[in-house]
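To whoever picks this up:

The nightly regression suite flagged Nuclear transport factor 2 family protein as changed. Nothing in the input moved, so I suspect the structure step. Input below, exactly as stored in the fixture:
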Amino acid sequence: MSTMSAENTAALALGRTFHQALTTGDWAGIRALLHDDATWTLPGDNTISGTAEGADAVVERAKLIASYGLRFELLHLLVSRENLALSLHNTAHREDADLDEHLSTVCRLRDGRIADIETYLSDVPGMNAFFV
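Regenerated output under the current build:
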């Protein structure tokens, strides 16, 4: 039986903290997890697509996404040797559109904090239609 390394345990804790802060709107909590030069890249061609550069821009991106009323269901926290991924099922509804997507948010870590985030989506056209 193998035991989890201290780095993996720390990465899992960071992932739980990030998800909790996102679901509760703890923007200062998210900011504390980020390096100043952090980035967040999302696919698609909509209001949340592209790369947010800098920790404050990453927090603003999180606020914008949350402002659409998303439910961020955490399915799994995954760790690699040095990094972290959150497997999520995001859903939201508004009068003219529904969002129902599975995604992986991959966080590259540096010195115990998030340096870069890249999100992979199951339904980019659905994301484009929802985030107008």
